[in-house]
Amino acid sequence: MSQKAEIRPDLVWPTDVTDVPKEVFVREDIFEQELEDIFYGPYWHPVAHEAEIPNPGDFKLFDLGRVPLLIARGDDNVVRVFINACSHRGNQVETSPCGNSKGFECPYHRWSFKNDGSLLNCPGSEDFSPKFSKEKYGLKEVKQQNLYGLILVTLSDNPPEFNDWVGRTAETIKNQIGHEGGLKLLGYQKVKYASNWKAYMDNDGYHAPLLHTGFRLLGWQSGGGRQFYTEHCHGGAESQLKPGKSMGVLKDESLIEFKDADWDSGSFVSGLFPITIMVKHLDCISIRFAIPRSVDSTEVHYAYFAKNDDSEEMALHRVRQASNLLGPCGMISMEDAAIFQRIQIGSHSPGVATFQKGVKDLHTIPTDILQNDETTNIPRWEYYRKLMGFHKEGEA
Ligand code: FES
Ligand SMILES: [Fe+2]
Predict the structure, then answer these.
(1) What is the 122 CA–ligand 1 centroid distance (Å)?
(2) Which of 9, 65, 159, 171 gives 20 to 30 Å between its CA and that of 44?
(3) Whether residue 196 sits in one domain with residue 127
(4) Of 82, 84, 89, 139, which is best to mutate to test ligand 1, by the most ligand atoms within 8 angstroms of its C-beta?
(5) Domain boundary among 134, 162, 190
(6) Are 72 and 115 in contact (CB under 8 A)?
(7) In the structure, what pLDDT confidence band is assigned to residue 249 with cuts at 50, 70 and 90?
(8) What is the pLDDT of residues 2-60, one digit of tens each?
(9) How far apart are CA 316 and CA 12, in angstroms?
(10) Domain extent for 58
């Protein structure tokens, strides 16, 4: 997609599974290669949920790496994903982050497109070159898949078979967003973290009770459950819910009530490789769509949803939980932003970041993934190392 570097970045990876070279968080050449290999490579990337654009004519913009996308529901009610660049000279066609429109007009030479992407008008076309025809110059459509309303795209000509790629994560996602009556969008919190995208994704279970004051004060620990990790580097956790205890810190205890949750299997977190996190916890349903902006900047759009058939009171309850608990400034998780930035600053120093908690063997990738450990992070780094072609010390 971008200009490919002639020389791939090189990096010697340490032999101990605990260690990750800090360089991967700060090197520009590695970031550029990641865009090519991962974000424009043979993977499926969530870019929207169809509940964000529920009506004919609705659209939203999103970027896959640096590639601008326009996700639009046509008048025919079909959701399509286009490259947000004019088929004439490549000008960005739409600039509003979301809206509703019968079509899109490029301001440069006024070519206009219907909301199904077809070219409607192009002034002066009687003088266009012999190769021109309106049919050939619609907006360029991107391959997509739909999983319980989640729209995933790929720019690769050879993407993996979708069901194989998503694997058992599909079950967790069904439990998160597969509500029969569908979802409705409540709103967004959008934030830019001053960190590399991998530092954002490298969050672990070990840190929560230590870093997060709100986590401790609200007695925020999930009960027993299952964790999993797939061969394509997706991960998930399904846990019993435990009631939080406000220990007198909340004026209104109803904030942490469960009003629509199954206590035995009520908390679901999943991470789809490389950068999408989905959470259904308490009565909060959220998808975090992320964009790696640069080597040291990651933008995350926290989209929050209610169920379509929720009462007004229930939807309001979800809004309060969404904005106050697990978002970028939520009571449970607000310190994360500072930590992401401090990791980024600290990574401009030699050496390795190291995982300790739960690691029993320095040369075996752990497969028993436990809550509150750092072992979950290790298979993800090994998948990344192989994908990027970084050799281990002493390997040919
Ligand atoms: S670049 Fe869009 S009309 Fe010319
Ligand atoms: Fe956290």
Answers:
(1) 9
(2) 9
(3) no
(4) 89
(5) 162
(6) yes
(7) confident
(8) 555 568 999 999 999 999 999 999 999 999 999 999 999 999 999 999 999 999 999 99
(9) 51
(10) 45-162
